[in-house]
Amino acid sequence: MVPDEAHTWQFFRAGGVDQVLIRNGTDIARIGQLDQKLWVALACPASGIEIDPRTLALIDTDSDGRIRPPELIAACEWACRHLKDPDVLMQGGDTLALDAIADAEGEAVPLAEEARRILQLRGKEGADRIALADVTDRSELLAAMRFNGDGVVPPESTDDEALQTLLRRIMKTHGAARDRKGLDGVDRKRAETFFAEAKALHDWQSGEGKDGADGTAMLAAAQAVGALREKVDDFFARCRVAAYDPRAVPALNPSLEDYETLAAQPDLRTQSDGIARLPLAPIAAGRTLPLLRGVNPAWAEALRTLQRDALPLLAADADAAERQEIGEADWRALQERLASCQRWLAARPATQLGGLSATELADSLALQGPLMQLIEDDERVEPHNARIAELEKLLRFQRDLLTLVNNFVAFKDFYRREGAIFQAGRLYLDGRSCDLSVAVADAAKHAPLAGLAKACLAYCVCTRKGEKMTVVSAFTAGDTDFLFVGRNGVFYDRQGRDWDATITKVIENPTSVAQAFFSPYKKFLRMIEEQVAKRAAASDTVAQGSLGSLASTITTADKSLAAGAKPPEPVKLPGRVDVGTVAAIGVALGSISAVLVAVFSKFVDLGQWIPIAVLGLVLAISGPSMLIAWLKLRQRSLGPILDASGWAINGRMHVNVRLGGSLSQTAHLPAHASRVLRDPYAERHRMTGAVATLVAVCALLVLAWRMDWLDGRLPPALQRNPAAVSAPAPPGA
Predict the structure, then answer these.
(1) Which of 74, 538, 552, 644 could in theory staple to 449 by disulfide, Cβ–Cβ 3.0 to 4.6 A?
(2) Is the pTM of this model over 0.90?
């Protein structure tokens, strides 16, 4: 599809970096040939950005949560290989023409054919385009399919009642598997295990050892003997020891302590382990085993079954079933009679099908072929499911791949202000809107690296209907005087949803040189305000204390006078200043005035150098702040903000003043809005403005007089340099 000759790229300049311009599908197909040193990013997170997470998961083939160049290159090449014309990727959208799909070599089921099958299942036969929703809406798609390819056959997939019964039987004995429709069914593994056990059990039931005049009676007797074999052998062995030495009888029977231990149990039951471990009956020399009375209650039912099912085999007379005890010789004879049947029982295969009768086993085995055919038919659909997944992948790549390339290989969407995938939304706060807002997982870890961006950053916690997220927004225009922790705003995400935003952290940096110019003066005024506030607070505290002392003194004096005591000396009121203090203050003010007059005189003596002196003074105050701001603005970069969010930025993505002005916009009145200038609540300055104007005019007049600008217009008595005015003009003038 794509020739192997060298490809010609086109670049655009943005952020101080040359970035590749994706012009057509060939550029996408050849993206692997572009030197990765020219890529803007070398990695990005596979979540938290404005691209469908499912698309990112399909690109993230190693599932490590990050997208890297090899994965993006592989995705581009795969998409171009499955399209007849890679320019289709430039169109975007979530629909794709069937004629645009290319059939790759070696495919058992071509993608275009699979697309037509899906459209047919959805009732869109004859349509020439397939949409992403046609593929991703699996519930509707699976509902239209009898088999879904997962190899799990639920009872609902067949109308044969016998097969439905068999499927439920297998699910009961071997558990159920969940299919893609959410239904319980049987898969191949469970079916094969069931039929293997059923055949083994069926073969065992038909084997040797069950022969006899009454096979059912022999089987019941053998089962009764097998249930008691160990306990009966234990009973007769104990009786033999008791016959050997009568002194052993107490030890062979349970002791009183054993019964006391049983009696101490809070919830004693006849089937408890403690009772079941006791002998079947009391031990005595030469004793026979009772079967009905005087037996261990835990084994009473088993002994009754032995008496009913096994004893009739010992004698042909009808009274054998009425015997209520059995001796050791009869026990051994009974075991010899049932030896072949017991060997047959011992050979019973271990299965989970003990509850099935011989008829149910035979019926199940007869349906083995049809059931396995159902499972095979379902599994045969699986290649179609794989093609459905690839169709979804192709449709997602057609919609999202160009966007990812324009936000990974280049930052075209960001620098053209079209909304980059890392921009989480827009923050409105302090009369500004901030478009450069990035989602943050941990502000404490993000801030140290993001601070290297040299931008004014505000971290905001955003909440909405129980949801919570953190964003960092860059303020790149306006002042920063009123950005502080706790201030509230509104954040709009990319879906248009509004969130309550509260500042939790501010990284201060200059937003412009003009803002830096006024910064020293604002700081000076704030310092004066703070000092005045502190002094006022301190004076208020002293005054309150003095007034309190005065009130206490007056109260004491009143009490003394009432008691007939001598009146106290007059109290000196706070705030009364003696003459010496007044004189000292006057001297200080006079000295300060003299200094100010001297400075002003020297300043006026500069004459025509006064503007330069004023300019020098302004530069001395604002120059350092402006220089620092200029240097920081030159270093302002997008890279550290994204690096702190998990990106790997390859270039220095500068944010200059012009770009910053577009990322943070201050409030402006609409172009055609009218404005009523009368403010009923405006501050009233009375004569302040007039006095300031008069002082400024006087200063200008003095400056003009000192620089001899008014000598030609003033009478000689007021001229500063009359000689220069009256001097004759030079010859030839």
Answers:
(1) 644
(2) no
